[in-house]
Write a structure and sequence with these properties.
With 320 residues, the protein is α/β, with parallel strands linked by helices. The chain contains ten helices and nine strands. Helix 7 (208-221) runs antiparallel to helix 9 (275-292). It is globular.
């Protein structure tokens, strides 16, 4: 069944329903709109987004608070055919997450026909017999109604071909805010009954240092060559309040390293006369200050960690 917004008010029975809480995860090919959807549901930036595929490396939990429920969103890396040890580890993260959540949302972009990558994921989902699966057709703002209708039919057919029924099929546009609330309305009844899992007001359980590192990496990804996203990792070495500052004028010192794999990539990240690195610092500092609610002094350095994606020891050091 395809779910579309219903203008009618919610029934009184719904108001008396028991409180529900649980975990939902969004899966899909890289760049299917999972992080943007997570941010739209939570109402603030908790996952990094980029127009380049495969930018999510950590499972980010975004927390949606409602009077009747608490929906904890786990954003996973895109499942893909791995070419490196990093790729294999990211796929392991996805499969482990699937086993632990209450409901799975499979994101398929409206503007791309269903391909081998989608079938590969759907086949894996078919093996999770008792887990409710919601098909989410994303990026609906990029297509006309006829193309959207064709995609919705194709998604329905995909489930039937693999021997399972989607709990719901929901078209959404996270950037335009279309049907995002409806998606939350449909995910909540699929959660178990129970009290809230996180305090009211918490939006993520991701450690601040990890979120800061992700914001720096997002800024570093903008405008670099296509081959570079996989090669960039960021580690925040230190976050300390500046000593001797008056209470009404605090300053947080953030020291971070941007790691790339080869010396030849250093110039790309730094840019002519250091301009790119300066832009990375300016952009990420604004987001970090908004996240932490305090002025920040950001100290960035670019370092080479040779072939880190293939080296187990370096992967560990960089947090993978």
């Amino acid at each position: 069944m395809v779910a579309m917004s219903d203008p009618s008010p919610s029934s009184p029975a719904a108001a008396d329903a028991a409180h529900r809480s649980g975990f939902a995860c969004f899966v899909g090919r890289p760049n299917a709109g999972k992080s943007t959807l997570t941010n739209a549901l939570v109402g603030t930036k908790v996952a990094i987004t980029s127009n380049r595929p495969q930018t999510t490396r950590h499972t980010v939990r975004g927390i949606v608070h409602r009077p009747d429920a608490q929906l904890v969103l786990v954003d996973t890396p895109g499942l893909h055919k791995p070419r490196t040890l990093l790729g294999e580890r990211l796929n392991d993260v996805v499969r482990t997450t699937w086993a632990e959540v209450d409901v799975i949302g499979f994101c398929l972009p409206a503007d791309q026909k269903i391909g081998p990558g989608d079938r590969f994921i759907a086949k894996e989902l078919a093996g999770l017999k008792r887990k409710p699966k919601v098909a989410i057709v994303t990026k609906t703002d990029l297509v006309d109604s006829e193309t959207l209708a064709e995609q919705l039919i194709a998604v329905d057919r995909l489930g039937k071909e693999l021997g399972f029924e989607w709990a719901e099929i929901v078209p959404v546009s996270a950037t335009a805010g279309k049907q995002v609330e409806l998606l939350a309305d449909l995910l909540v009844p699929l959660l178990p009954e129970g009290p809230a899992l996180y305090p009211d007001g918490d939006l993520t359980d991701e450690p601040e240092q990890v979120m800061v590192a992700e914001l720096i990496r997002e800024a570093a990804l903008e405008g670099v060559r296509d081959e570079l996203p996989h090669s960039i990792a960021v580690v925040v070495e230190e976050m300390l309040p500046r000593e001797g500052r008056p209470a009404d004028r605090p300053l947080l010192d953030v020291h971070a390293n941007i790691f790339i794999e080869r010396p030849s990539q250093k110039g790309i990240v730094i840019g002519p006369k250091g301009r790119r690195l300066k832009d990375v610092g300016t952009t990420s500092r604004k987001h970090i200050e908004a996240l932490l609610g305090t002025p920040v002094y950001l100290d960035l350095h670019v370092k080479v960690a040779k072939d880190w994606q293939r080296d187990p020891k370096q992967l560990r050091r960089l947090g993978f």
